[in-house]
């Protein structure tokens, strides 16, 4: 599958010290922040999306704390280590609430290169319910067996919670932070955004169905498993997520100006 490359910034140049691989990652991550805002999934200046720096096991990119997602650019993204310390000079600092979650996952899961955290209203409603996500709609079925659950321990500031979050996540790619929000991780920014989109759609559908009277038509477990397996295979083996990401970037750029 031939995928049209993402457009590079028009008004910012790659710094000399930045590798081409890191610059590509910075551009994609900046687009990802703007897409999350475009979809209406932001929490003002809070929450965070991180991406591993290519070629580095211990450094990742994250948003500067205090900026709107619409103000994020490839240049102002912070490069930090697993303890949240900046490894390159910046006038900005990172959000300390993100270190425990992001550093834990990036430090332990080599297969996860991008981690997104949101708590939209539909997602926040679902994760407050004891049953969590059901799997009886088109999107929910795709998440069958792919969701871990972590009990609420307050704001994720403290290093001692890392081990428990990782135990809750296991080998899955979706972590429900009960009474809080969601974290999704995948092997690329494109795949992570597509997974978050699927989770968001599942939450919206489940909330809408729950508001209606009448009995739900339940999907058999075997069918839900088949849906989940097929979706995971499509994302893993094809350029499906890349096509989705590129199409959303084109839509974004057609409807609003970007600062890069």
From TrEMBL:
InterPro entries: Aldolase-II_Adducin_sf, Aldolase_II/adducin_N, Aldolase_II/adducin_N_sf. It comes from the Bacteria. Pfam families: Aldolase_II. One of its GO terms (molecular function) is actin filament binding. GO terms for biological process: monosaccharide metabolic process. Belongs to the aldolase class II family. This is Class II aldolase/adducin family protein.
């Amino acid at each position: 599958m031939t995928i049209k490359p993402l457009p590079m910034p028009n008004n910012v140049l790659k710094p000399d010290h930045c590798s081409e691989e890191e610059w590509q990652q910075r551009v994609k991550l900046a687009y990802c922040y703007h897409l999350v805002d475009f979809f209406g999934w932001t929490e003002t200046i809070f929450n965070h999306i991180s991406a591993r720096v290519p070629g580095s096991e211990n450094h990742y990119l994250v948003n500067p704390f205090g900026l709107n997602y619409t103000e994020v650019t490839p240049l102002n993204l912070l490069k930090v280590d697993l303890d949240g310390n900046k490894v390159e000079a910046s006038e900005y600092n990172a959000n300390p609430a993100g270190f425990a979650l992001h550093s834990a996952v990036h430090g332990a899961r080599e297969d996860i290169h991008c981690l997104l955290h949101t708590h939209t209203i539909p997602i926040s409603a679902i994760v407050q319910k004891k049953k969590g996500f059901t799997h009886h709609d088109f999107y929910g079925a795709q998440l069958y067996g792919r969701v871990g659950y972590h009990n609420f321990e307050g704001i994720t500031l403290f290093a001692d919670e890392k081990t428990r979050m990782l135990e809750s996540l296991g080998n899955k790619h979706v972590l429900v932070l009960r009474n809080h929000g969601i974290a999704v991780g995948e092997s690329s920014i494109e795949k992570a955004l597509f997974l978050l989109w699927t989770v968001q759609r599942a939450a919206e559908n489940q909330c809408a169905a729950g508001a209606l009277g009448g009995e739900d038509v339940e999907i058999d477990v075997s069918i839900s498993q088949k849906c989940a397996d097929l979706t995971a295979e499509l994302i893993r083996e094809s350029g499906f997520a890349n096509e989705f990401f590129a199409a959303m970037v084109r839509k974004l750029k057609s409807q609003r100006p970007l600062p890069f």
